[in-house]
Amino acid sequence: xxxxxxxxDRSILQGKKGAFFYTLEELSKHWxxxxxxxxxxxxxxxxxxxxxGLFGNVFFHPSPRGLWYQPWWILIKGDExxxxxxxxxxxxxxxxxxxxxxxxxxxxxxAKVPYMTEVHHVVGHPHVGSFQEWIGYxxxxxxxxxxxxxxxxxxxxxxxxxxxxxxxxxxxxxxLCDLPSLYLDRPLLAPDPSxxxxxxxxxxxxxxxxxxxxxxxxxxAHVPDVKLLxxxxxxxxxxxxxxxASLGIANRVTFAGWLxxxxxxxxxIQSGKIFVMNSxxxxxxxxxxxxxxxxxxxxxxxxxxxxxxxxxxxHNGLLTTGTPADLQKKIKSxxxxxxxxxxxxxxxxxxxxxxxxxxxxxxxxxxxKTIATPHPSLRx
Length: 380
What we know:
By secondary structure, this protein is of the alpha/beta class. The protein is built from 13 helices and 13 strands.
């Protein structure tokens, strides 16, 4: 069977081996061919020879123009690909401004290939991080019930939080398909006790307002001598570096930037005593559960799947409201209690056992295959 993916993820085209790369590595085993339609990556397009044959059967088709052109590119290129390769099913990653969803609707109307809409998280839910997120939330509120789900064969959600919200928005129960996207590679997530704990706290995320790094920096400023490692890059990096300097903690905060391989990230995460995740909204978040699988004690906001995994009675993590004052309180309570950290470490790793990568991606592939139909040219 053949799969057409409509995605906004351009990380692979930028030469990055992130979550999408490792998802496709396993997903490719379940399909004869996968074609991925994406927006153009920043900078020049990679040579055609570098866009095809990833894992032997995954091919990328970035748009030659900007985001404004994306719905037309999905229709034009998607129809061309379907006519040539006879895809059985499509999947579309939905997020504001919903150019993927609009293009998928046009392509479905033209080619009649069924598709799954994937809502990994709703921007601005449960908490809005910026005015832009407020706009994104209301765009989602209007688009998803009226157009984003009306032609889809299934609507995938990755957490109870998102599923409950879409039910409130009157998306039919029979369309909803709950498939978490926490694909944890257990062999790679084995704790390494030889790694020196050079930092007290580790933060890992794309550096945007929603991730709450500013609040973490303000909390660190009120906990003497605490050292923080920040893994990741993004448009707010310069602002965060300036804030660390203005708070007088620049010498206690290390910005490591983007690390090229998962294994590099995992080693860096383990160089701290505590992992902090302070997002206002998330689908997973994957990196938090990777840290837990590595045996890291964690402090986290209750977003995405967090509330279903981290429970006070399980002693597997601390929940925070995300304010600097609460973060400061939780950091002190965990940092100064080595026995509690050790307990959290063991329990956190145990809590992530259900999210094994191979089994969960197989479940995802099988869910897509249940809505697949043979291409008209192949039907008897």
